[in-house]
Amino acid sequence: MKKRFISIVVLVLLISACTDDITRFNDETKRASEVPPGSLFSNAVKTLSDGLASASVNVNIFRHFVNHWAQAVIQEEAQFNYVTRSINDTWWTRMYRDVLNDLKESSRIITNDVTLNPIIKTNQLAIIDIMQVYTFNILVTTYGDIPYSKSLDDQLLFPVYDDAKTVNKELMIRLENDIAKLSISAPGFTSSEDIIFQGSVAKWISFANSLQVRMAMTISDVDNSLAKTAFEKANPNAINAISNNGFVKYFTAIPNNNPLYDQLVLANRTDYIAAKDLMDVLNSFEDPRKPGFFGVNNVGLYVGGIMGIPSDYPKMSKPSTRVADPSAPNVLIDYVEMEFYRAEAKERGYNVTGSAESHYNNAIKASILYWGGTEANADKYLLRSDVAYTTAAGGWKQKIGFQKWIALYNRPFEGWLEVRRLDFPKLTIPVNAFSGYPNRMKYPANEQQLNGTNYTNAATKIGGDKSETKLYWDIN
Q1: Which of 248, 283, 392, 436 could be a cystine partner for 49, CB 3.0 to 4.6 Å?
Q2: How does pLDDT run across 175-220, given as a tens digit for each residue?
Q3: Coil, helix or strand at residue 371
Q4: Residues β-bridged to residue 331
Q5: Enclosing H/E stretch for 453
Q6: Phi/psi at 299 (nearest 5 deg)?
Q7: What's the confidence (pLDDT) of residue 34?
Q8: What are phi and psi of 13, to 5 degrees?
């Protein structure tokens, strides 16, 4: 009888337990249910910066596109082969999935936050959108026509590709609206969340105007009227001093260090070396930036390797300890870039104070100082007949393009943009090159397989999904 009673009690308890709501056990009590929007924003910016700074053969091949670095052993990337490792797929995925989606989610959370101060909210949303514009601009200048208007719609698996010219115009409109919304009367993100300007809205205004200058000058050969109008409106508020440079500051501790430290030091690679194309110029011009760019070889000389041919690693110059420093900053937009744009704008007849020569000199001097040179070094360099604006070879595109190519060292994506846009310097095609000069990256293989119809339409429209296909703004 006692055993029977116990059995009945257990049964009753089990039955009553089944009526309880057990869905609470699905809650992850030790994991945040929603990531803070500021963390999403800073993660997106860091992911973007890591990609631009990286030298990984699986991520970033642009140092080879501009003939700044060669490789001592593995030659595929130095020969413009980015398909074997699907670098074009990786670049696309990083920008869309990892950067733009984090920015989108950060924006969604902030938009729905009814407790946030309205001016702070407006600032944060504008800053997020500025970085979305920055990222879309990378995509459109990498591939050409891209998914844009429907690209971040989670319910749409097969987005159409938007016309690159239309995308560029819409991005410039978005950026102008963002600039108008920013107010220095309130903060934006906190200093820890904003890893570029540590909360300074004034510097974000300068950054956004500088990005507008970059986008305006990119289209100057095909839409001079729009470029002139946009440049003249943005330029007065664009970066006008080194102290306003836009960069991500890295730290010595992993994982917040510059990714170049991982790839050049921790990985102990014996492959990355100076390209002969750049090193020959640095040597012949006695360029004071040379020790900032590279170290000496095993006998104390500065030597570069031929693009596309294996080299004896000990006999070659490698990226400098400054470049490989774990805390080295990664520049997104700076005064050097802006001064070269101002020199160009003056030559194009745009309304800009100062002469083309003065802005050209300012850019070169700022670059030399940034890389460890002195005022005296810069003055001496600018007196060289092959550097001085009045006597350097060629027209203004050649003068500016050549010196900008040097100054954009370790900023390979921006260097690639300028080489294509200005068509100077004329770079040597690597030995056994996989293609002609890469004017764009091919679309990812995943797009061909999963979004085939839209991919085919886009590829046909731009003139073929080939590396050599020029983008609409690259007409020379």
Answers
A1: 248
A2: 999 999 999 999 999 999 999 999 999 999 999 999 999 999 999 9
A3: coil
A4: 247
A5: helix 452-462
A6: -120, 20
A7: 73
A8: -65, -40
